[in-house]
Amino acid sequence: QVQLVESGGGLVQPGGSLRLSCAASGLTFSNYAMSWYRQAPGKERELVARIPSAGGSANYADSVKGRFTISRDNSKSTVYLQMNSLKADDAAVYYCHAEFRYGKLDYWGQGTQVTVSS
Question: Can you give the pLDDT at residue 47?
Answer without folding.
Answer: 98
